[in-house]
3-oxoacyl-[acyl-carrier protein] reductase
Amino acid sequence: MNCALVTGASRGLGRAIAVQLAKDHGLHILVNYASNQAAAEETLAEIQGNGGSGELLHFNVQNRAEVDEALNGWREKNEDKFIGVLVNNAGITRDGLFMWMPEKDWDDVLNISVKGLYNVTQNAIQQMLRKRSGRIINVASVSGMKGVAGQTNYSAAKGAIIAATKSLAQEVAKRKITVNAVAPGFITSDMTKDLNEDELKQMIPMNRFGKADEVAHLVSFLASDKAAYITGEVININGGIYS
Ligand code: NAP
């Protein structure tokens, strides 16, 4: 059975992506989360409510030992299943001007986004390479495309994800594994709930924040057979704010 692992699927974009992948492709979804089990259970309930299947898989993406223990343990118990789709979605912001940025805020953002991508992808890609099939979709950001003041750490992390996407895509294309990134602009979620939407939306040609569902449809397309010839791409989804 084909499965999709979505990191940070308890809330926001990750939840919408998990629900959409189950709906569109009938994939069994591994709903990863860091600490918010109740929210992860809501994601699972939504998947099941639509007639899909899934399970929770707790690990902190920045901890390699935890990632390996969770994924290797799961694989031992599920020899008939294959994680054919990986969505590296987990991410955080710790905004502030660079001159005053504490080292911890730099490290936490980079460790979750970039080291997290390394940890989870290193584990999951081994089986994809053996099976000569796979879809890896990395959630970047407009911040990694253009750079955003007050987000030097986050822009660095998302820029690294974009560059890693392009490199890895070239390494694994012969094994029929595609690696792409999506770069959302402002999307309504917990991450953006404290921003001044009325003020910020004036900068967006579409004059609104995006919805998590809209990003989920794009990710779902990239996970589909129809996207087999797209790899190493970064697709902007930002209401026209930057391209
Ligand atoms: P969110 O609502 O804050 O949700 C973040 C998710 O990441 C939660 O499920 C959280 O799990 C999980 N997470 C955080 N740290 C983790 C860790 N160490 N290990 C595993 N999971 C972890 O954020 P969001 O807006 O949905 O953002 C999702 C992704 O989209 C991020 O990569 C973000 O950078 C990117 N993005 C968002 C926007 C936007 O406007 N919202 C724009 C561009 C890009 P818990 O619930 O357990 O804490």
